[in-house]
Design goal:
Elements (H helix, E strand, L loop, with lengths): L1 H9 L1 H20 L4 H37 L15 H58 L6 H26 L9 E5 H11 L1 H6 L3 E5 L4 E5 H17 L6 E7 L6 E8 L19 H7 L6 H12 L1 E7 L5 E8 L7
Helix pairs in contact: 4-5, 6-8, 8-10
């Protein structure tokens, strides 16, 4: 009976209009002295039709209302049973609800993928950071057992491993920031040389420890970019250059001449172990390490992926040229008309 009350309330305008028409008809019949029998006969026919129509309409209303109420009590709505829409407004609402359900499903799928990617990254990151932590633990044990025989080389080794831990911790923080770069941009005129020197300064200990020669030249451009994220990209690339360059090798950082004066091409070049040709097309993919990365057992396949993700937001194109055992050259093309401003 509760649905009957809801139905009457929902259709009250139609009942009022029917009563009004009946009243007007009765008044007109009275004023024109129409036969009472004819009026009653017309009233009975109209009432019978009204009852039949209302009964059919109520059954339809009951089924639809019951169906919608069932969906309202579900924890999640993944689909909607499509009842026949009787009016244009009903069809519009039906399409709107179906669209919202589809958008919700797409959003849930996106969030699931995002969560899976994050869990995968944390698993890789945890595996990656174990190596320097284990090395630090071993060095500390040696120092504790022979406190008087601690060599300068042990101290340098310890600092090197601590640097790696710090670098990996910062990497995971930047990974989280990269998920929402739109609110983290600050574009301003930046001197290329100043940013390069900041990146190099952080890796100075690594260059010295591995006896790698650093060459910087022709860094004179000023660009419009976000200095913090450009620095992040350079640090990731320098990390790879140091990691895969053998002791006594060379790393060069310089600007390359371009036909378009508005473009700046910054090159990070090393003479390390290089990259296999079949690996080059995939090195920017998340989690892809390639042949040399797997052989070195040091690569997580995350660094270049993060570089590419940040570079895309900054309007920077990354191109990698490499040959096995003949080094790697990474070219950053900064096109000022592609730079994104917030």
């Amino acid at each position: 009976m509760k649905y009957l009350g809801i139905y009457i309330k929902d259709r009250k305008m139609y009942f009022f209009l029917t009563a009004f028409i009946c009243g007007v008809t009765a008044v007109i019949n009275y004023l024109y002295s129409a036969p009472l029998q004819a009026g009653l006969y017309a009233f009975k026919i109209s009432l019978t039709v009204l009852v039949i129509v209302c009964a059919a309409d109520y059954v339809h209303f009951y089924k639809k209302h019951e169906n919608l109420q069932r969906h309202c009590h579900l924890k999640e709505v993944h689909a909607l049973e499509e009842d026949a829409a009787h009016t244009a407004i009903e069809r519009d609402y039906q399409q709107l609800v179906l669209k919202l359900i589809q958008e919700k499903a797409q959003l849930a799928e996106h969030m699931q993928k995002k969560q899976t990617d994050m869990m995968d990254y944390y698993a890789i990151w945890a595996h990656q950071i174990k190596t320097p932590i284990a090395a630090v633990d071993l060095l500390l044990q040696v120092m504790e057992e022979n406190p008087r025989e601690v060599a300068e080389q042990d101290i340098k080794e310890l600092k090197s491993e601590l640097f790696k831990i710090d670098f990996y911790v910062e990497a995971v923080m930047n990974y989280l920031r990269l998920e929402d770069l739109s609110s983290d941009f600050r574009f301003e005129t930046t001197a290329v040389e100043a940013v390069v020197k900041k990146a190099v300064k952080r890796f100075a200990g690594q260059f010295i420890h591995r006896q790698i020669t650093l060459v910087m030249e022709n860094l004179h451009s000023e660009i419009e970019t976000d200095e913090k994220w450009l620095l992040f990209i350079l640090e990731q690339l320098l990390s790879n250059a140091v990691k895969y360059t053998q002791k006594g090798g060379t790393v060069k950082i310089y600007e390359k001449e371009t036909l378009l004066k508005s473009d700046t091409v910054l090159v990070i070049e090393d003479n390390g172990i290089g990259i296999q040709s079949e690996d080059l097309p995939r090195i920017m993919e998340r989690g892809y390490t390639g042949y040399n990365g797997r052989g070195a057992s040091k690569s997580s396949g995350i660094g270049l992926y993060l570089c590419k993700k940040a570079a895309d937001q900054l309007g920077i194109d990354i191109e990698v040229e490499s040959e096995p055992y003949h080094g790697t050259k990474v070219l950053l093309t900064i096109r000022q008309h592609h730079t994104r401003h917030e």
